[in-house]
């Protein structure tokens, strides 16, 4: 690579995946300190890369922005290397619009679908998603450092979090984009009651429309905050309990130990907590995994993979972590 290579990294979404690009960005900065790195991401996730010293420029893709308009904001002649960490129909079209040679992440689709539909495990070990991204950039001679992802809340984010949440609270993440990945609300309430009875302070985080999943006595409600303010709230926690969702990865990016409740997905897909102390609670039911990323409902209607995770077992995991 030439001195100060100019790089283009594309990862449109989603929250957890964008967070998990940051070990690659850090590896690039370590191997090529003079690199000029442009990241393309959906506007709702752009703040996740704000303040990152490994990122020179963030190109935020606006909602419903035509790919032709996005491509017009990128000059392909500028880049010595282009990396597609999305490998979706949309990112493939962007690659065609920009032209040139691209490094592309191997999303291991064949192994994933063999495990879901045939029950056959064709994975060779567990390569975390963050290291799948690093693998895609092998031509840059980068290596993982084993450290977690990283985000950079501002001083204002930290001050707002301090005003909201006491240091050492237990953070609870009851939501998920997909209903099949959510531990039932009644179990979150039962967990909250157990933890408050043990004298622990609790804070619940998520989007505004997830507020109904956990609220009421003993729970500080920190829903609907900007992503970096949420990250600052999570940083103040002694431990974070979460469904398999993007905010779980955000918790790892501020160095918090996590307890993840894993239901329809499995660790072989690469999305277990990366680089931090973690406990994974899951039930080995025969129909797992039933999906690659989640679904609107349990295909069989029983949701045993989540329902059978007991609140007392989660409370005990919190005690071990604390």
Structural class: alpha/beta
Strand content: 15-25%
**Radius of gyration in whole Å, from Cα?**
20 Å
Which sequence of SSEs, written as H and E, runs from N to C? Answer: EHHEEHEHEHHHEHEEHEHEEHH
What kind of sheet is the major sheet?
6 strands, parallel
SS field, number of helical segments: 12
Q: Strand order, main sheet: write it out.
A: 8-7-6-9-10-11
* Whole-number mean pLDDT: 96
Instruction: State the share of residues found in helices, binned by percent.
Output: 25-40%
Here the CATH topology of the largest domain equals: Rossmann fold
Return residue spans where pLDDT drops below 50 for at least 5 consecutive residues. none
CATH class of the largest domain: Alpha Beta
Kindly state the number of beta strands: 11
Q: What is the level-2 CATH architecture name of the largest domain?
A: 3-Layer(aba) Sandwich
Total domain count = 2
CATH superfamily of the largest domain: Glycogen Phosphorylase B
User: What form results from the Cα inertia axes?
Assistant: globular
Distance between the termini: 46 Å
């Amino acid at each position: 690579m030439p001195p100060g290579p100019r790089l283009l990294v594309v990862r449109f979404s989603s929250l957890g995946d964008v967070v998990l690009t940051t070990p690659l960005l850090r590896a690039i900065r370590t191997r090529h300190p003079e690199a000029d790195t442009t990241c393309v991401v959906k506007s709702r996730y752009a703040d996740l890369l704000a303040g990152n010293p490994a990122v020179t420029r963030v190109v935020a893709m606006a909602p419903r922005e035509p790919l032709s308009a996005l491509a017009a904001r990128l000059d392909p002649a500028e880049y010595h290397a282009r990396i597609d960490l999305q490998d979706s129909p949309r990112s493939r079209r962007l690659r065609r619009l920009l032209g040139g040679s691209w490094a592309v992440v191997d999303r291991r689709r064949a192994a994933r679908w063999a495990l879901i539909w045939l029950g056959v495990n064709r994975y060779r070990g567990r390569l975390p998603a963050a290291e799948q991204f690093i693998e895609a950039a092998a031509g840059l001679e980068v290596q993982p450092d084993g450290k977690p992802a990283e985000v950079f809340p501002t001083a204002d984010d930290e001050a707002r979090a301090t005003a909201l949440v006491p240091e050492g609270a237990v953070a609870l993440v009851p939501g998920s984009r997909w209903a099949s990945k959510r531990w039932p609300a009644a179990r979150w309430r039962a967990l909250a009651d157990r933890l408050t009875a043990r004298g622990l302070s609790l804070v619940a985080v998520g989007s505004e429309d997830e507020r109904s999943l956990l609220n009421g006595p003993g729970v500080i409600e920190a829903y609907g905050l900007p992503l970096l303010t949420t990250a600052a709230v999570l940083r103040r926690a002694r431990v974070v309990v979460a469904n398999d969702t993007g905010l779980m990865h955000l918790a790892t990016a501020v160095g918090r130990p996590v307890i993840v409740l894993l239901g329809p997905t499995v660790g072989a897909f690469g999305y277990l907590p990366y680089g931090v102390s973690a406990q994974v609670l899951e039930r080995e039911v025969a129909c797992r995994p039933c999906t690659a990323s989640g679904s609107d409902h349990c295909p069989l209607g029983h949701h045993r993979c989540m329902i059978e995770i007991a609140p007392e077992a989660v409370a005990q995991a919190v005690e071990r972590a604390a």
